[in-house]
Amino acid sequence: MKKENSFIKHCNIIQSKYGIIIPENIQTYFAKFSEDSDNFYYQTLKKADDYKIFYTKEFVKFIISKYPDAAIDFEFLQNIIDEGNYEYSLLEKRFVSENIDFSFLNECLQEYHSIPFYIGIYTFETCGGEEFLIINDNKAGYIAGRSHYDFKKIEINTNSIKYQKIDFIKKLQFK
After folding, report:
1. How far apart are the C-alpha atoms of 80 and 88, rounded to whole Å?
2. 5 or 1, which is more confident?
3. Closest CA to 61 of 160, 173, 130, 154
């Protein structure tokens, strides 16, 4: 009987434990590495247990469009968008919190029929920003970065809703 590759085994564990799905092409590529490899991204993925989501501009616009115009509570809307970055459960495929009512955001998620956000595995963090390996959809395999203070805004009359900006830096080649 063939022994299961330790990297593939780890990917299966983080999928069942956290819902983090490492794309097959990335798994296949890193499965070739020795277990003691010092490759930065190999080591990052072996330790992967945390992720963050980054909304697409289109999804944020969709959220705003679903909110009743006459009663827009910008503070509430901004709060659920901000907190949602940290409260999305990959296992449950919805926003989950004991303290915040995400029913509106989850409703938007169910109705939205495109990529609502990108999922990033932390590769490193500094006092000024973060870097991630994106693991979903058309940006899977990209290295992305963000500054802690860099946001995009969508203007609505005299108000605006902001969301975290992410820059796709480069695509890793998994060959």
Report:
1. 11
2. 5
3. 154
- What average pLDDT does the segment 59-86 reach? 88
Residue 12: what residue type? N
Helices (H) and strands (E) in the chain, counts: 6, 9
One domain for residues 106 and 154: yes
pLDDT band at 174 (very low <50, low <70, confident <90, very high): confident
142 Cβ partners below 8 Å, 6+ apart?
Answer: 133, 134, 168, 169, 170, 171, 172
Domain that holds residue 81: 51-171
- 55 shares a domain with 74: yes
Domain identity same for 57 and 117: yes
Q: Looking at residue 3, what is its pLDDT?
A: 74
Same domain, 42 and 94: no
Q: How far is C-alpha 107 from the chain's CA centre?
A: 19
Please indicate, yes or no, whether residues 119 and 163 belong to a single structural domain of this protein.
yes
Q: What is the pLDDT of residue 126?
A: 87
Q: Which residues share a beta bridge with 143?
A: 133, 170
